[in-house]
Write a structure and sequence with these properties.
Chain lengths: 478, 319, 153
């Protein structure tokens, strides 16, 4: 691997972390912004640059999630739960250290899987028919049972609200506009990140301003703390769970890191020795989703490289990068351009290492930034949110949506309605509905199709088991 | 998202690429901003970037691509319609801009723009996986006839041209089939490859990787003539079903662009599409050359919009 | 408070479900639609929300104490509403005053509202902050931001 490829990897990671950390700049946008600059590069350099941006951005999203309760990317939403609680308790440096190292574990594990098991994993991707996708979405939604914070009814209110938001836009089957009130801006649907930024960040600021006594713990981290041996002992299981779940969520096109992160969080809680700490600042609650969504950065490339099918917006941009250099990802890529494929593997390895190095340099200053006086901090967080959200589509409408979601989030807290079920509803609603209806079109209206497809049957059974188990545990008399 | 800073970078790259600089009358504006609703790397974006690579030396001006997303194209249309009519800003048209206008009735629709030229038609094909017993569209139709309620066809997007074409195919053949729409070509491809669907419909570009690898087989082309690259694949019309999809790529500007600027575009486009370098690029994507000047493009767009509006109304998608 | 929090939330959920259900009735019927229809899933969601609301409201009547949350005084909500007002003013100001000016004003206004002293340090921080955002988004990311009517660059 040449020096230029290494440099591309470093530049890509830096750019990706920067873009990923800004709320509103998704990994795919960070990649798209760089895409035109890659036209004049060598193919390997260009592909490594773009892939490194993806790695950096998926990690970068966790930094604001932990520090200011604002997920920079969709898949960092699960990290806000315990990451921000840790930061509130003054353990921001520790949380950032765990997320960085869990990201490394996930990224490297994903890379190994990508190199060794692309062929079998591609078969997994092809096994997912519409009923299977529906069941996958239901499995994701089943997490609601344990994320409802003790009141299933209130959790359901949140979930239904989220699912309702997800129905806004163009109907996935007939193409008619739904709940758009004649607005062209709503035709494409409401992007989940807008709801998340509103529900988490804006609602949090409204909360802080309304209760002046609110503040963080006194003794607080002033610098990054990498996990020591004792911490590794606590989090290895969470990391392993994240890696396992991330592998399979990554290869199913369209599912992606967000579901992986939430499911990993949920399973880490289930298997933890300290499940009561989850939601109140658990180190495992940071480790599991962070390793899961970083595994996805590698395994999401499986359908792209082996089938030529982009499973996410980010993979679609990468596909564009390949095509501009006259390369066609797909079954023949490994024969026609092995140098590019192996270069990409090397670039991903370098990107994960650079990710840690860059993290070591920038995270301590980031902690310093959020330890500024509270009024200034609130002002800058809101300015950041307002700029990031607006910048992407040049749309004040989007910013209005974020503020609206912020008010909803504030009201939900007043009523004790948990926000996580709503986030899951927003993220999964489209996947569940479109595949539910697609399956019924295929089966001629017969609901039995969900039980005939073996993958679907298995996933639905798993959802049922997990929900039942969670309900019994959450609601059994103490 | 406007990226003016890139324009300079592009101009530099393009200056190197300009070998056959047979400059005609100087174009009045520089740089020219070409607006698309697709994101970088998307269909129209790639089309524009390849086009300007060849147009730059011929037209003696520099170009920048401006990706204005949002509102399924409505934002881009509005931006171009409001720009001064001096040829400094044009919009890359595809059928999407007409469909968005019809479906969502934004403040400024497709008729707020004035077509300048049409350059290519994107051929649509019907394909299936190699393991499938079908060899032609006629085979798949025969199966649908013999097995009522068992036929399953796929299109990439809801209410898209492809989806409508399959509805028309159903009508033309007099068969019942479940038509499933997806979230883009990749999603559709998975369900073709795993045998969930009898066949899918899409652009050559979208299925190229699988086609080259021998994983999918073409059953028919949905154009009015056979494609030179796939001369042995019969058109759907030849197979007895009168269905043709016309997907175009062109340019449109705000109303009031002087005729001499439009004529300059037509001359330049005709010149670049004849160049060997560009020909090599667009024939690789199996694009069908179909250059139309302003008058023709206007009439074509008008007729296309009327037809599609009629079909959408007939199917009850719009009132 | 006469209604318990659960009852209030339940009623709210039912009202929301009703409005959403009504709007689902306005969805265009299309011949391209499937048997479920474009309005099918929304109607299911409305029913689910209404049932959940009913259960919550019922629980609130039976066990009014169960749903106790944190009761904030009205003044707290007013403070939150004030912050929201600042953000809405910003939203309206951006197209007119442009981004750099608006965001500097936003930083200053929110900081003062949150308890910072309005002094020279604040003014400098606001301007420097606006400049930093401008630099990040405009120059690093290459994203066009509106400069407004007071166009100077």
């Amino acid at each position: 691997m040449g020096l230029s490829t290494l440099l591309a990897s470093l530049a890509g990671v830096v750019w990706g972390i920067f873009g990923g950390a800004l709320p509103g700049i998704s990994p795919s946008i960070a990649m798209a912004l760089l895409l035109p600059f890659t036209y004049g590069m060598e193919p390997v350099t260009a592909i490594v640059l773009l892939a490194s941006v993806y790695v950096g951005a998926e990690y970068g999203g966790s930094i604001p999630a932990i520090l200011i309760r604002t997920p920079g990317t969709n898949s960092a939403a699960a990290t806000t739960i315990d990451g921000y609680e840790l930061a509130r308790k003054g353990r921001a440096g520790e949380a950032l250290g765990i997320s960085l190292m869990s990201g490394l574990v996930g990224g490297l594990f994903g890379l190994v899987v990508l190199v060794l098991a692309t062929e079998p994993l591609a078969a997994v991707a092809l096994a997912f028919t519409p009923p299977a996708y529906f069941a996958l979405g239901i499995l994701g939604l089943s997490v609601i049972a344990s994320l409802s914070g003790g009141s299933l009814l209130k959790g359901l209110v949140g979930a239904f609200l989220g699912l309702m938001v997800a129905t806004v836009g163009t109907d996935p089957v007939s193409g008619v506009p739904r709940f758009t009130f004649g607005s062209a801006e709503l035709l494409g649907g409401i992007r989940p990140i807008l709801i998340m930024v509103g529900l988490f960040a804006v609602a949090e600021m409204l909360e802080q301003i309304s209760s002046p006594g609110w503040d963080r713990a006194d003794g607080r981290d002033t610098r990054l703390k990498l996990p020591g041996l004792a911490t590794w002992k606590r989090i290895w299981k969470a990391n392993a769970i994240g890696c396992g779940i991330g592998t399979f969520e990554g290869v199913t096109p369209g599912a992606g890191g967000t579901i992986a992160a939430f499911m990993a969080y949920n399973e880490a809680k289930r298997w933890s020795k300290y499940p009561e700490e989850f939601g109140k600042g658990s180190v495992e609650g940071v480790a599991a989703p962070e390793s899961a969504n970083n595994v996805v950065t590698a395994t999401a490339l499986v359908p792209l490289l082996s089938l030529g099918i982009p499973g996410s917006n980010s993979a679609a941009i990468l596909l564009g990068g390949f095509m501009i250099h006259g390369l066609m990802p797909g079954p023949l890529l490994f024969q026609k351009a092995p140098d590019v494929v192996y270069g990409l593997y090397g670039g991903l390895l370098a990107a994960n290492i650079f990710m840690v190095l860059v993290g070591l340099v920038i995270l301590t200053p980031c902690i310093w930034l959020v330890n500024r006086p509270k009024p200034y901090l609130i002002a800058f967080i809101l300015a950041l949110v307002c700029t990031g959200v607006f910048a992407i589509e040049q749309s004040l409408f989007d910013l209005g949506l974020v503020l609206g979601a912020g008010v909803v989030g504030y009201a939900m807290r007043r009523f004790g309605v948990p926000v996580l079920p709503m986030v899951l509803g927003v993220v999964l609603g489209f996947l569940v509905e479109s595949n539910y209806r697609r399956s019924l079109v295929l089966s001629g209206g017969d609901h039995g199709v969900f039980l005939q497809d073996p993958v679907s049957l298995g996933l639905l059974a798993a959802a049922l088991l997990l929900t039942g188990y969670s309900l019994i545990r959450e609601f059994k008399p103490k | 998202m406007q990226m003016k800073s890139w324009i300079a970078g592009f101009a530099a790259i393009l200056a190197v690429a300009s070998a056959d600089a047979a400059a005609q009358a100087k174009y009045p504006v520089s740089p020219v901003s070409l607006v698309t609703h697709s994101s970088p790397g998307g269909g129209s974006d790639v089309f524009l970037r390849e086009l300007i690579k060849h147009l730059t030396p011929v037209m003696g001006t520099s170009f920048g691509v401006d990706n204005v997303r949002g509102g399924s194209g409505a934002a881009a249309i509005a931006k171009v319609a409001k720009s001064p009519p001096n040829g400094g800003m044009l919009y890359a048209t595809t059928p999407t801009y007409i469909q968005t206008s019809l479906l969502s009735k934004p403040e400024i629709g497709y008729d707020g723009l004035d077509p300048i030229a049409i350059v290519f038609l994107d051929p649509e094909v019907i394909y299936t996986r190699t393991e499938s017993p079908f060899r032609s569209v006629a085979d798949a139709i025969a199966y649908a006839k013999a097995n009522a309620g068992r036929a399953k066809w796929g299109a990439a997007n809801p209410a898209s041209l492809e989806r409508i074409a399959l509805e028309r195919l159903k009508k033309a053949a007099g068969v019942q089939a479940a038509v499933v729409s997806h979230e883009g070509g990749g999603d559709l491809m998975i369900n073709v490859l795993n045998g969930t669907l009898d066949f899918g419909i899409g652009e050559i570009q979208e299925i190229r990787a699988q086609l080259d690898a021998g994983k999918v087989r073409l059953l028919g082309v949905v154009t009015d003539r056979r494609l030179p690259d796939f001369a042995n694949v019969a058109t759907v019309r030849e197979q007895g079903f009168d269905v043709v999809v016309t997907k175009f790529r062109g340019l449109a500007g705000p109303k009031g662009i002087p005729d001499d600027i439009a004529a300059q575009w037509e001359r330049a486009i005709r010149q670049v599409v004849a160049s060997d370098a560009y020909k090599a690029e667009y024939s690789k994507e199996s694009l069908v050359l179909s250059v139309m000047g302003r008058a023709e493009a206007r009439a074509f767009t008008q007729k296309f919009a009327e037809e599609i509006a009629g079909t959408l109304r007939e199917l009850g998608v719009i009132k | 408070m006469t209604l318990s929090r659960d009852t209030g939330l339940g009623v709210l959920a039912i009202v929301l479900a009703g409005a959403y259900y009504a709007e689902a009735g306005n969805i265009q019927q299309s011949l391209l639609a499937d048997a479920v229809g474009a309005d099918g899933v929304p109607r299911m969601l409305a029913a689910g929300m209404a049932l959940t609301g009913l259960a919550l409201a019922g629980r609130g009547f039976v066990r009014p104490a169960a749903g106790k949350g944190d009761d904030l005084p009205a003044s707290a909500h007013l403070r939150a509403a004030g912050l929201l007002a600042i953000l809405v003013v910003y939203l309206l100001a951006v197209p007119v005053a442009g981004y750099p000016l608006s965001v500097a004003a936003l930083i200053a206004a929110v900081a003062v509202y949150a308890g910072a002293r309005a002094n020279a340090a604040l003014a400098i921080t606001s301007v420097a902050g606006a400049a930093a955002f401008w630099f990040m988004f405009k120059w690093l990311l290459g994203i066009q931001l509106p400069v407004g009517m007071l166009s100077w660059g």
